Amino acid sequence: MTRERITAEIVNARLAKGLSWRQLADAVDRPLTWTIAALLGQHPIPAEQGAVLAELLGLDESVVPVLAAVPVRGGLPTAVPTDPTVYRFYEVLQVYGGAIKEAIHEEFGDGIMSAINFSLDVARKPHPDGDRVVVTLDGKFLPYAWTSADD
Amino acid sequence: MTRERITAEIVNARLAKGLSWRQLADAVDRPLTWTIAALLGQHPIPAEQGAVLAELLGLDESVVPVLAAVPVRGGLPTAVPTDPTVYRFYEVLQVYGGAIKEAIHEEFGDGIMSAINFSLDVARKPHPDGDRVVVTLDGKFLPYAWTSADD
Amino acid sequence: MTRERITAEIVNARLAKGLSWRQLADAVDRPLTWTIAALLGQHPIPAEQGAVLAELLGLDESVVPVLAAVPVRGGLPTAVPTDPTVYRFYEVLQVYGGAIKEAIHEEFGDGIMSAINFSLDVARKPHPDGDRVVVTLDGKFLPYAWTSADD
Amino acid sequence: MTRERITAEIVNARLAKGLSWRQLADAVDRPLTWTIAALLGQHPIPAEQGAVLAELLGLDESVVPVLAAVPVRGGLPTAVPTDPTVYRFYEVLQVYGGAIKEAIHEEFGDGIMSAINFSLDVARKPHPDGDRVVVTLDGKFLPYAWTSADD
Amino acid sequence: MTRERITAEIVNARLAKGLSWRQLADAVDRPLTWTIAALLGQHPIPAEQGAVLAELLGLDESVVPVLAAVPVRGGLPTAVPTDPTVYRFYEVLQVYGGAIKEAIHEEFGDGIMSAINFSLDVARKPHPDGDRVVVTLDGKFLPYAWTSADD
Amino acid sequence: MTRERITAEIVNARLAKGLSWRQLADAVDRPLTWTIAALLGQHPIPAEQGAVLAELLGLDESVVPVLAAVPVRGGLPTAVPTDPTVYRFYEVLQVYGGAIKEAIHEEFGDGIMSAINFSLDVARKPHPDGDRVVVTLDGKFLPYAWTSADD
Amino acid sequence: MTRERITAEIVNARLAKGLSWRQLADAVDRPLTWTIAALLGQHPIPAEQGAVLAELLGLDESVVPVLAAVPVRGGLPTAVPTDPTVYRFYEVLQVYGGAIKEAIHEEFGDGIMSAINFSLDVARKPHPDGDRVVVTLDGKFLPYAWTSADD
Amino acid sequence: MTRERITAEIVNARLAKGLSWRQLADAVDRPLTWTIAALLGQHPIPAEQGAVLAELLGLDESVVPVLAAVPVRGGLPTAVPTDPTVYRFYEVLQVYGGAIKEAIHEEFGDGIMSAINFSLDVARKPHPDGDRVVVTLDGKFLPYAWTSADD
Amino acid sequence: MTRERITAEIVNARLAKGLSWRQLADAVDRPLTWTIAALLGQHPIPAEQGAVLAELLGLDESVVPVLAAVPVRGGLPTAVPTDPTVYRFYEVLQVYGGAIKEAIHEEFGDGIMSAINFSLDVARKPHPDGDRVVVTLDGKFLPYAWTSADD
Amino acid sequence: MTRERITAEIVNARLAKGLSWRQLADAVDRPLTWTIAALLGQHPIPAEQGAVLAELLGLDESVVPVLAAVPVRGGLPTAVPTDPTVYRFYEVLQVYGGAIKEAIHEEFGDGIMSAINFSLDVARKPHPDGDRVVVTLDGKFLPYAWTSADD
């Protein structure tokens, strides 16, 4: 069974069994958003945790080594996302992408925010006009550096 | 002069005059990332601030009403960004877009993070393994609601 | 069974059983266009209504939790719709999108019509030269606002 | 001067002269959204009105015959609009396009809402939770009909 | 069974049974090109004719209500057709699309040829240098008209 | 001056001088749609006719050899046309392309309608329910033939 | 079974049975490249030859009428081919397409090389620096001609 | 002046001066199709020949070093060519690309026809049914070989 | 079974059996990256090695002739890769593609690095700031040469 | 002057002055490929070096601050490169991208080769069958790590 098929089965099994993502994250003691991303096929899941999750979700244990392998990442079905909840983040890139780039360069110089040495948090913050979704992207700054390996 | 031409002139004038984005933001007393986005053509700039910025940047005052008009937004030259600093945020969407969506739905129910009632912050956070770029997206949660206007 | 497969089964079952969308909407006491959109996979259907609809359509009750989950939205098979009935609305965007944008900004200022706090109506209106389709899009105005959560 | 260049000049001249779209529409006694669409290059403007508008906007009178010619329509710079105000209407198509199609077919049978014999209105409607943008699309129903010309 | 699957079965069954499109059109007493288009999934087929065709083609009668429903139209597998016979018509659009537009506007004014109130004929015409394919597109002229429904 | 620039000048000059396409076609004694297509950059215009047209339109005589050269054809600014008048013909391809293909094959066998040995006519035909646009595509049938040159 | 499925079966059966394309071409006494193209789904295969090929490849005889029907042509899985052997021919078009066009026009005048009245040969030619692939494209010249059918 | 601008000037100057491609090729004693490709911006032109061509075409001698530099190749304005004369070769790829690939592999084994060690010829061949365009693509066979440089 | 299906089975079987790519490469005594590419469907695998690999991976021996055939190459599921590990190499092309091209031309003249007479190595190189991935692309230089076969 | 315009001027000025990339790199004492990439608009050039290069190339000194700013990176004019020299590297990604990914994961675990902490070398290596282009990509391995900033 390919990782994509396993992902589809996970999505369905979670709903059928009425498990929350939080329950699954707690069962393997990993952060919530990491766990969802991994179960949606975007991260390898170490065999120990994979076995726990497979049992909770009622999946065959043969999925464990596939879950443990590094997947081919990329979870958007189209280059521009159509789902409104996801699209808003693409819109943020369209409207603020240039500003984020300039702000990083002014503060740190030439380089990027790593999306590999990186974590992500989604939180609810109270506000008198209605609670807010606060998404924190937290990645190591990587300066452009022209380095070579030792030969 | 179209807004696009004005944006190109702003980009050059800022470099020629050696002004930082922070100086420009302080001159009009607005948040840094808002100011950059606005000067990159993504927000209208009220005439009062527009006049200050135009003078600082040495632009003709005829740009002021164009800056004050709501622009056609969207700042990526291609649907998938090619610039590495901007691309990392698109990559975050590819890898974590699904997880963000599920985490929002589990915490708030069906709906979205607004990208309109929204602010954005780019900050440096210290870390022993190298300082980090922390980008905070902060938008009002909007639940799907089937409301109608009074006729 | 994925939501997509369930949608395909709903489309067929409705035709096989000769049920109108109106009958389905009335059975769950929801607006017509909301009900069609939900049955076409664009909205979660609460379990109570989902159970009623599943029974009416002769679907297995295992679909109920999948119908109740927030779906990945987006119902056009191509970015530019090919179906003539749907295309006309895309054409309206091509011809009048700029005018709608300017009219909103002149009346309300900078901001958008929400597509989340939103409802939609399709009605027949009589006209001596032939009856007319009147589609009313009704969404809350959301002004651009640079608000932050309390930390 | 091509129609596209004239459109760009109109956009700028209107801002420079501080004219509202409403003032321009009133000057030629045409509906507001029709007038905006026409000035944005989506409709021919009869010579009489074109002359009035050219004078108001300070354009050379040589633009009048170009404004009076049927333009090549289509005002979105990309197939999927990037501007948030315009995008919301594309999102409505993604989420509700199928429902609109089915509702039209259930009420009228096989056919389309004309986008040619068509008018459009953008209005503010009061609502206790915040005023609403109400966009009314009003087009003649055209049934699929296999008719031939007389030979 | 979805309409797409039924279309695939029709294509195969016709070949297996050695039926010509003409025989199928005659069996339901409809024009040839309408019948082919409908059997290729582009038009609803009323139940009476659908039953005749299903029997002729040896399809299960459960397809009849699906054939009778308005389909999601659009029969090109890619935006630019790759099949040479179909491509030539796309090429005609590339080479003569502008001329057709201008000729319509010069003769009729601003408006379109309807593709809904429309019929199509494919005929053989003799010619000393080799017979010719003559395709006649015949659609009602629809003038742009800014009409509204009665409220 | 490139052919594209000349085409843009022709479009403007015709409007400025108030010449109809018919007048231009008559001046060079060529069919109407051929003449429009050629003036829109889709056909070479022999020097004799080119000189007549350049003088009528007030263009410099240096355009004559450029008009006489075979152009790079293809007149749609996007792969899927956005102009409603032109789009309807693309829609005809989406809805009837398969039927046209099958009708040609059933009548003529394997092959195509030539778009090179080809002419096109746009005519008004009266009809009690409103006059009709009749577009006749008339191309030589070319059978697939595996022929080789003499070596 | 659709033509696409039959093509996939042919590809596999040929490898499983160890048959060369040449053997298949000889069995039906047709040119090599025509035979490969036809077996890859790009040409109809007359029933007599189809029966021979089906038997050789061990396919069910029900494929014969499907093979004999004119297929929907177009064999590239993406608009720009990714396979290096095929890509080189696309590259030839990118680098020499304009030159081929100009050379044809200079030698023959306005028109095209037919891809319908056409044959193709792939041959090995010896060369001291390494043997060469010589692909000969041989198509009838078709001059642009504005011809009409007799009415 | 960029190479693209120089190419545009060459195209116009050749027409204005009434020079044939053959005359230009003869003036520098290079093959016809190589010369056209080079003048259309697809090959570097050595300074000696560049000077001859620049003088013949009346271009400033400053273009010579730009013509002598290796250009960024790729001459199709769109991924799928719209010009009918060029498109036919793309169509050949769609219909015969797979057959060419298989024929090369059966004759030569795994590898490609080089498009670098390559020449191209366009010729007229007489035929009783009409003269034919014969395009010969002639490239060295390059077998896939896993070779490494000496370290 | 198509090559694509076999590739999917290989991917799964390797994980299920806990075999490293190195073990598979050693079993057939071929370079590591060649072996991975071949098992991912990008190279033919000679029957002898194919049989060894099929047995190791527990695949049916009927896959051996399919593995031995030249595949249709091209392993990216989208034109721009979404997987971050693969994307970095696309980014290298965006940022350094022009520089690589110019460096090759300055050192070697007009021509290319062959991707056919080519090998590839992925190695770990130690570095005090963290080990480095060193990917060596090693291809024969092919100069542009206008050579023809002997007729 | 925008960075893009400056890049175009650099490209021309270098050719006009007959400077090699090596001479330019030596003048600022930076690696060759870094220098070319920077001059092609892909890296900021510190003011000191920018001044040297501007003088060598005869550019106005006003370009120096623009060269010193971090550019919007991305140098391919199309998503899939059309230039043969550049395309070969895209082809390497199509054929070997999966193998590179798997080899990195097997050697290093989950992570990427950095394209930021990265250098690149293009070298000539002798080989009896013809000299070879050896391109060495050398980037720091970055393991996926779920790290957060200190709050």
TrEMBL record, chains A, B, C, D, E, F, G, H, I, J:
One of its GO terms (molecular function) is cyanate hydratase activity. Keywords: Lyase. Residues 75-146 form the Cyanate lyase C-terminal domain. Its EC number is 4.2.1.104. Transmembrane segments: none annotated. InterPro entries: Cyanase, Cyanate_lyase_C, Cyanate_lyase_C_sf, CYNS_N, Lambda_DNA-bd_dom_sf. It catalyses: cyanate + hydrogencarbonate + 3 H(+) = NH4(+) + 2 CO2. The active site is at residues 88, 91, 114. SMART domains: Cyanate_lyase. The keyword Lyase applies. PANTHER family: CYANATE HYDRATASE. HAMAP family: Cyanate_hydrat. Belongs to the cyanase family. Catalyzes the reaction of cyanate with bicarbonate to produce ammonia and carbon dioxide. This is Cyanate hydratase. It comes from Mycolicibacterium sediminis.
